[in-house]
Amino acid sequence: MHHLNGVYIIWYRDVLRFWHDRTRLVGSITFPLLFLFVFGSGLGSRMGSLAPGVDFTAFIFPGIIGMTVLMSSFMAGISVVWDREFGFLKEVLVAPISRASVAIGKTLGSATIALLQGLIILLFAPLIGISFSFGTVLALIPLMLLLAVALGSMGILLATRIRSMEAFQAVMQMLMFPMVFLSGAFFPMDGLPAWMSVLVKLNPATYGIAPIRQVLLGIGPESSFGIVLFGQTLSLWNNVTILAGFGTVMILLAVWSFGNQQ
Asked: What 3-state DSSP class applies to 54?
């Protein structure tokens, strides 16, 4: 129970900081919406239909949701670097709570914030002609949360190894944008050059965005949007299992890394 209280306090602090920072809240959804309405509208008429009943704008919408969740959770590690530079992290590390609680609380805080931002983007679906049921939302929430936890824990892990805000931002941009653009968020994964296909399949975000697209658009894994790995088309549960395995490894490494903080 003591450790759970520590997790809750760290989680609550990060969520409360986000909730009171309205500029951050507005900015976090403006960038994805620019992608959706500018990028989608600009290329939608030229790309045409990518599948029966799925035009380019509808295709990238789940990718935009995944991008929002990915970027928000991945950048959560910046709070660790910020707390270290201003001395708050040292106070937390000497507090009577386990360092594992700190790492897990930080990860869950970033995942909650990323989930909220993804749900806000989901509200814009009717503007581009996408309809969904309440059951679809209930199915999307655990998928978005899994992606947020997996990438958030990776961001926390990297933040424990980086000492300055400038270095963290540089590393995040170097990793985050390739992960977004090589996740299948903006293009189907069939017919890619061999080298790009390999990079897409090595990208953990690919296995988070694919099931979000399947659930939201109501398409099966056998469509041209599915992931083919070792000659087998991955089902939704295959994608979830791969991402969950990656997330578990990242959480364990983040907990270990926090335990070795000075």
From this structure: strand
